[in-house]
Amino acid sequence: MSSPLFRLSPIAAAVLAFHAGPAAAQTAPAEPATTLPTVKVEDSAAGGIKADKVSSPKFTQPLLDTPQTISVVKKELMKQQGALTLSDALRLTPGITFQQGENGNTTSGDAVFLRGFDSQGSIFVDNIRDISPATRDLFNLEQVEIVKGPAGADNGRGVASGYINLVSKTPFADDAIGGSLAYGTRDRRRGTVDVNRKITDDIAVRLNVVGQDGGVAGRDKVESQRWGVAPSIAFGLGTPTRITLFTQHIFHDNVPDGGVVSVGVSGWRNPTLDSPETNPNGVVAERVDSSNFYGLDTDYENIDVNTYTGRFEHDIKPGYTVTNTSRYSRASQWRVLTAPSGAPTFGDVNDPSTWTVGRSRQGIVRHNELLTNQTNLRGSLTTGVIKHDFASGFEFIQESQSQPTYAVTATTPAQVQQRADVYNPNASDPGVDLSYNGAYTDGRTQTGAAYLNDTAKFGERDQFQLSGSLRFERYRTETEAGTLSTAAANPGVTPVGTLLGSRLTKSGTLVTYKAGGLWKPLPNGSVYASYGTSKRPPSGDNFALSATTTNINSTALAPSKADSVEVGTKWDLLDNKLAVTGALFRTESKNDIARQSGNEIVQYGKRRIQGVELGVVGNLTEAWQLSAGYTFQDAKVSEGTIATDGTSTQSGAAVNFSPKNSITTWTSYKLPLAFGPITGPLTIGGGLRYIDSQARTINNNLGSVTTGVVKVEDYFVVDAVVSYEVTANLGLQANIYNLLDEDYVGAVNNNGQRYQPSIPRSFLLALNFTY
Fold first, then answer.
1. How far apart are CA 449 and CA 456, in angstroms?
2. Which of the 8 DSSP states describes residue 5?
3. Contact criterion met (CB below 8 Å) for 143 and 558
4. Beta carbons within 10 angstroms of residue 24's beta carbon
5. Which residues neighbour 252 within 8 Å (Cβ) at sequence distance 6 or greater?
6. Residue 503: is it exposed, middle or buried by C-beta count within 10 angstroms (0-12/13-18/19+)?
7. Kind of pairing, strands 464-484 and 434-458?
8. Weakest mean pLDDT among 134-138, 594-598, 734-738
9. 162-168/141-148 β-pairing
10. For residues 269-289, b (16+ Cβ closer than 10 Å) or e, as one string?
11. 44 and 731 in contact (C-beta within 8 Å)?
């Protein structure tokens, strides 16, 4: 029985026809398609930090001629900065902030906020949606690509702000070995190895391994332990037909971090302390020690992620390449997390030793699976005087999530969770037991899509370019849930605690597109304008549909929609070694989700983000490298919550976790140095990050917000690096994070009662080797 999901659409039929007969439309010999250069292991800070292309075969042009803001963080730059995780790498890009997360999702995964939207569900690996619940390690990555603006035509369902793509390391036709041994603050120990071996002229293998153990700088009791292995093999290197098989397996064994009580943090409010009636002596709350651990000794987190990928590439003829990629991924998370919860209670407002805070103990068991197959045809042809570079294809993907419910074990007498002392929490306090109670939520989404991208070039030197992308996507989400009845609606028939099953489905069609015009006044520069759309249906990330109107995953809701406009310019300077970019952007989500008085979800909200982004990356001289970016964004709610009196408490308010100004800079300089019999270059570098203040809540009258952190204050962070090449194969590197020991709030949760503190001044020493 055929599913309506995979019935052939007119657009899909057109793409098929395009695949079947590309030569028929060709009136002149095609230019060979440009392919990504072979990547070689370079474990040296001397490697270039400027990227010219992204990895996706859907992009037909180099970055210089792509009418969209795209930032690429290469492994050479990540190594210089001592970045070990995806969150570390993303801090190199302006306009990105982080959120702490809620309940069982606290600090789970990479909670990224990009251009006014939560983008945690818009992270991809090798252009395939990623399901990992863990903080992603960089040991097996060539580069991180941050694509800003409309993403619907690239990947289908997703938020309007863009997406993040991680590019895996794969074999190349040479012999090389690299790696590092590192030691840092809080007894952090880490080792990596990257080995590539050429077996024959066209066969090579590669192995990447990582192991890490130790604490987290500035945090008591929090531990981070992980190991990973990523073997791969490639056949047909340098030939028209290439096959690459690669897998990645990573396991985490952590003590999770529920954050720190916000008491005393700048901008924190509490009605008891703010009121002269309840606090006649004017007691001021001192800030708690940011190293305090409010969890319990029995907290734990185990995450197991396994990914298997096969990629087939074939050059049909000069200028035409077909790529087929298949992937199966499975990720499992077992976690018990205890975190401070809610506002503090004051036993005696005059005696801070009597102040306590509740603890929330969450048990999470979650299994995610992904199965996908993607086919892409990329080529070039000429019709009359117009040259075309096109990419078209099909994608099929099935994603699922299974989550049994773990809750407090019912005992007699009932267990009592010990509240935490605000200033002196005790991890040995008793905690409630959690066990599976029979309830569950299982969800899955099937997607079938067809797309067509084309760039038309004309004029002298192809100085005028028009690009267009169209994607047709059919999706179907199904959620099966088992819940426990809380009241006996039919006494004697449905007792309290009876498992009640439910099944919800939602399907639909998403049509998204983007278009751009580009002018090249000189071969090394471009000026462009572009427009694109994005759509995101309910439960687009977690597959957990709801029949409740107060739930953002309600089946009654239509997909949210967004339009994005961008005008910009890009230039490659200094013999193409330095890229300089600038853009004006505006995004408006026209069907955003808002809450009515009474907590009912409605779809009339509008969110508008507009601003400017500037960037520079590359080499100023052979010895001097620079990466810098600046983003100004004005993020506001155009239409928001409406109260019963007809007034709005959100319209005109700033979007939460969206700073107006953010700056990232990094520069390094290589000096020749002789030390006795040892000669080799010394590299010194450093950078400054500035993040402007951020609203914690969406409200146009922050004076009415009386509890929790009202806004996250702005902060500066200075980092530094010194590295020395002892020999051509051996180097020493010292990274100092937060050199000035700036004390800032890294992220807060939604109610502002707990936060993730800054990383204090800390270090990482590494011995790097390459052969």
1. 23
2. G
3. no
4. 9
5. 134, 135, 224, 225, 226, 301, 302, 303, 304
6. exposed
7. antiparallel
8. 594-598
9. antiparallel
10. bbebbeeeeebeeeeebeebe
11. yes
Residue 643 confidence (pLDDT): 58
The rounded distance, in Å, linking the Cα atoms of 731 and 210 is 19
Q: Among positive and negative, which fits the CA dihedral 21, 22, 23, 25?
A: positive
**Tell me, what CATH number does 744's domain have?**
2.40.170.20
- H or E element, residue 307: strand 300-317
Confidence category of residue 240, pLDDT binned at 50, 70, 90:
very high
Count of domains for the chain: 1
**CA distance linking residue 661 with residue 658, whole number of Å:** 9
For the chain, the first-to-last Cα distance in angstroms comes to 56
User: How far is 553 from 531, CA to CA, in rounded Å?
Assistant: 28
Q: Please name which of 362, 369, 364 lies closest in space to residue 440, comparing C-alpha atoms.
A: 364
pLDDT, the chain, mean = 87
Each residue of 739-757: pLDDT tens digit?
Answer: 999 999 988 888 889 999 9
**For residue 280, what pLDDT is reported?**
92
User: What is the domain range of residue 589?
Assistant: 4-434+441-770
User: pLDDT per residue over 286-321, tens digit each?
Assistant: 999 999 999 999 999 999 999 999 999 999 999 899
The dihedral region occupied by 48, where left means phi > 0, alpha psi between -120 and 50, and beta the remainder, is beta
Exposure class string for 565-582: b at 16+ Cβ within 10 A, else e: bbebebbbeeeeebbbbb
Identify whether the C-beta of residue 467 lies closer than 8 Å to the C-beta of residue 454: yes
423-426-432-433 Cα dihedral, nearest 10 degrees: 140
Task: Give 426-453 as a DSSP string.
Answer: -TTS----EEEEEEEEEEEEEEEEEEEE
Per-residue confidence (pLDDT) for residue 675, from 0 to 100: 64
In the numeric block, the tokens 């029949």 are attached to 547
Any idea which residue has 């059919």 for tokens? 474
Q: How confident is the model at residue 5 (pLDDT cuts 50, 70, 90)?
A: very low
Inter-CA distances, 65 with 70, 413, 465, 586, Å? 11, 69, 9, 20
- Rg of the chain (C-alpha set): 27
Coil vs helix vs strand at 362: strand
Q: Given a cut of 50, is residue 568 above it in pLDDT?
A: yes
Q: What secondary structure letter does DSSP report for 85?
A: B
Which tokens in the block code for residue 33? 């398609």
What 3-state DSSP class applies to 64?
helix
Task: Tell me if 434 sits within 8 A of 104, measured CB to CB.
Answer: no
Q: Are strands 300-317 and 215-216 parallel, antiparallel or unpaired?
A: unpaired
pLDDT, tens digit, 9 for 90 and up, residues 486-533:
776 566 677 877 888 899 999 999 999 999 999 999 999 999 999 999
**Is residue 393's pLDDT more than 90?**
yes
**Residue 106 has which token pair?**
């606290």
One-letter-per-residue 3-state SS of 104-155: HHCCCCCCEEECCEECCCCEEECCEECCCCCCCECCCEEEEEEEECCCHHHH
- Are 120 and 175 in contact by the 8 Å Cβ rule? The answer is no
Q: Residue 641: which of 676, 697, 680, 601 has the closest Cα?
A: 601
Q: Are strands 745-748 and 754-757 parallel, antiparallel or unpaired?
A: antiparallel
Q: What is the DSSP letter of 60?
A: -
Residues contacting 338, CB < 8 A, separation 6+: 258, 294, 295, 296, 299, 359, 360, 361, 362, 431
